[in-house]
Amino acid sequence: MGITLELAQTAIQAAHEKALEMGVKMNIAVVDAGANLVAFVRMDDAWLGSLDISIKKAKTARFFDMPTGVIGSLSQPGGSLYNIEHSNGGLITFPGGIPIKDGSGKVIGAIGVSGHGVEDDHIVAEAGVSAVEGK
Amino acid sequence: MGITLELAQTAIQAAHEKALEMGVKMNIAVVDAGANLVAFVRMDDAWLGSLDISIKKAKTARFFDMPTGVIGSLSQPGGSLYNIEHSNGGLITFPGGIPIKDGSGKVIGAIGVSGHGVEDDHIVAEAGVSAVEGK
Amino acid sequence: MGITLELAQTAIQAAHEKALEMGVKMNIAVVDAGANLVAFVRMDDAWLGSLDISIKKAKTARFFDMPTGVIGSLSQPGGSLYNIEHSNGGLITFPGGIPIKDGSGKVIGAIGVSGHGVEDDHIVAEAGVSAVEGK
Amino acid sequence: MGITLELAQTAIQAAHEKALEMGVKMNIAVVDAGANLVAFVRMDDAWLGSLDISIKKAKTARFFDMPTGVIGSLSQPGGSLYNIEHSNGGLITFPGGIPIKDGSGKVIGAIGVSGHGVEDDHIVAEAGVSAVEGK
């Protein structure tokens, strides 16, 4: 089923440390290859509504094996995937979700981060991915 | 309720073969005249998020008896069916869903395909329709 | 993610043939190790309400890696898992769902069958499992 | 909103270590005073269906400020809370969910554990509570 709990916790810890360093309060979720939750943390006083968003970002990134922001660029009015967000019980397609690959390039899960501006969400998610990718 | 399992499986097999020929990995669903699932296949390593999308495309095509992309052209901001995707537990209105008719032109079901660019999804869906329409 | 489409179709075909032999009309679903649908067929004139039940049986069998009827024996009033059916968006815990294992005994997916008495559902599911288990 | 992430992670780590010691594979969730998820881990190869159950147990324990098993004793046929599981998007009322209190006895959150027999689930949950209660 892809990512282990140990790797998921390593990703979350790295993302958490990045968020602390940036002074932002985040919800951080990691799902496995089946898009099912493996580990999650919500930092104190992080936006409550970002709880569900972080999990949906992680799921969305695994559902289509690409960063969530890429999907969002295609789901705009007039875009080829307009309103794809209505599928799968609700997708989140702005930045902050990124697939996690193993050393061979196979997707083993994904991380989703939500709690601040979407650029910051993406930076924190990247910190999580960097800590584990290829391990 | 329209399409038989035998015809649905013929449509799915033709679509599956077309996808293999094109080198794309698809989720393929067929619903009957009641918009209920009759047959489904997910090709190995096809996008997981496309499972639900393929079924929603088939249902959407039967709900309104037209290709999903046509509905999408009407559901844009300012369009007459703006945000129709909120109905029926979630519609998908970009290409890849096509109604299936019998020899008399009566709609007996629909096919929905998802897994690649929406033009490819539509081509694969058409291969499925062509294999059974009028039979 | 476990079971391939080829194996899933082999299981469904064997179950379908068993159902024809028994003269019963079934919905037959196979999910992978992530409990996501891989293949599905609904026989002509099979109960429409059994569509969802067959998928939920397959998911339930994979969720807990045991036949659905075993869970049902524990979820009765007074039982240790009373009303477990309220989890996971709805479980079905009467017979007809069975995990599918590979040659090493690892669960790679599950089959769910619904459409007749639950004993018949279970027999048809077993025919599907027997056709692929250990392959 | 009650429990901090730090305390929630302490509870989860203690529960995780207890599960390892007992040789059982668990899903472990902690919610805050608002019954919203604060932290979660799923041990490798733990039952997939227990993911949702562990979260629902934690929520149920905080919803009513009592161990889930106590509610289950009242929700049986003929009991005063018969079928209370239908509320709140689905409750789980068998053992494995326990409220967490601060030093003054005020409930600050709850832990939910699922993955094995319900007695084991409860023991692992208690290990989590003991590690933080009154801190």
Most residues in contact, chain pair and counts = A-B, 20 and 21 residues
The overall average pLDDT of chain A, rounded, is 96
**How many beta-strand runs of chain A?**
4
The tally of structural domains of chain A comes to 1
What is the CATH architecture term of chain A?
2-Layer Sandwich
- Largest sheet report of chain A: 4 strands, antiparallel
Distance between the termini of chain A: 16 Å
What is the assigned CATH homologous superfamily of chain A?
Haem-degrading domain
Task: Specify the CATH class of chain A.
Answer: Alpha Beta
CATH topology of chain A: Beta-Lactamase
- Low-confidence spans of chain A: none
Oligomeric state of this protein: homotetramer
Radius of gyration of chain A: 14 Å
Helix content of chain A: 40-55%
Class of secondary structure makeup of chain A: alpha+beta
How many distinct helices of chain A?
4
